[in-house]
Amino acid sequence: MMLEKLILLLAASIMGIISTMGYGGVVLLMAIESACIPLPSEIIMPFAGYLVFKGEMILWIVALMGALGCVLGSIPAYYIGKTGGRRLAEKYGRFVLVSKKDLQMADDWFKNYGEIIIFIGRLLPAVRTFIALPAGIAHMNMSKFIIYTFIGSFIWCWALAYIGMIFGEQWDTLKVYFHKFHYVIAGGTMVFIIWYIKRHFQNN
Fold first, then answer.
1. DSSP 37
2. Which 3 state secondary structure label does DSSP give 22?
3. Alpha-carbon distance 72 to 30, whole Å?
């Protein structure tokens, strides 16, 4: 399958970057993943954990670098949302099925539960990649955004790296399951899209 080949190629590229750049590669890749570019942290961090198993990295530093990358990548996405995202969303949102009602709902969520949404969002596959943009649109407090992004991301990065470390001897087998995990995410995303489109037309 073409999708499987692309994922395998992406995984090989990720592993090559981390093997070459070390901790800097972890920072770079997780920054990209948090800047609304869907690089799979489910491959990035477990591979770093595998290098911990091999004695080439240290677990807490891997998690720290991953969280730092998430913060660095989230900041530009946040400011894009804050400086122009709302205006663009109000003007063109209907073309991508985002209504003013949706924007107001996002404002209310971030106003009342912003910290919780960011923290939990950083622990959810796919959601964590794009959560910075609506945070910026809703003008969430920047200091709180950075703090909760870091805390949630550190937990996420540590957990995935720990899995890679624990199952280090079975890395070749484990890789397959991480690849399959992306199919599950893709399927769940499609279900969500169908529901969202149906909801959009019912509300307009």
1. -
2. coil
3. 9
